[in-house]
Write a structure and sequence with these properties.
175 residues; mainly beta
Length: 175
């Protein structure tokens, strides 16, 4: 949802019980349902405007639960939400739920959105480089600048990138 959570809501630590599997883990991975980063990706993110998103350091231990793996490792504590998604101009999206707390219709897109399926307002181009859209469930957005830096650095992540279509702010009144 893009709402920052308290450190206590994350797991305290993680453990590696299968070294062979751990060796295949990229710089973006999941720990108990939370996105986590390490290595070049963590370093790269620290050079971008994350807005309210924080990198929260946590330890990972070997199976003996005492030997700490060399890190650092971070949870991505998303804290930047934008309201620039334009469902009426997007393709392959469907209503998911109505959020009574916010009064917003939340939409769902396919797992692998194609370039241009998702439409956002040009105002999305300002502000933080990494964010969540309030009205689109399960998608992470990033600036073109961050996307290019990830590709240039050849960072080992399993994102399915697709380009959003950008439309002018004259649609903003109709949202």
């Amino acid at each position: 949802s893009g709402k920052k959570i308290a450190r206590e809501e994350f797991v305290e630590a993680a453990y590696v019980f299968n070294n062979k599997h751990w060796m295949m883990v990229g710089d973006l991975f999941s720990v108990c349902g939370f996105f986590a980063v390490k290595g070049k990706f963590a370093e790269l993110l620290q050079n971008f405007d994350l807005g309210g998103t924080e990198l929260v350091e946590f330890p990972i231990y070997e199976a003996d639960k005492t030997t700490r793996l060399p890190g650092p490792f971070y949870f991505l504590n998303f804290g930047t939400v934008k309201y620039t998604f334009v469902p009426g101009e997007s393709r392959n999206v469907r209503p998911l739920l109505f959020d009574k707390d916010t009064g917003l219709q939340v939409w769902k897109a396919g797992i692998t959105a194609e370039d241009g399926d998702i439409t956002v307002l040009e105002s999305s181009l300002t502000g933080p480089d990494l964010w969540i859209e309030a009205q689109l469930h399960g998608k992470i957005f990033m600036s073109g600048r961050l996307h290019e830096a990830i590709l240039d650095a050849k960072i080992n992540i399993d994102f399915w990138f697709s380009k959003a279509r950008i439309v002018g702010t004259n649609l903003e009144a109709g949202l």
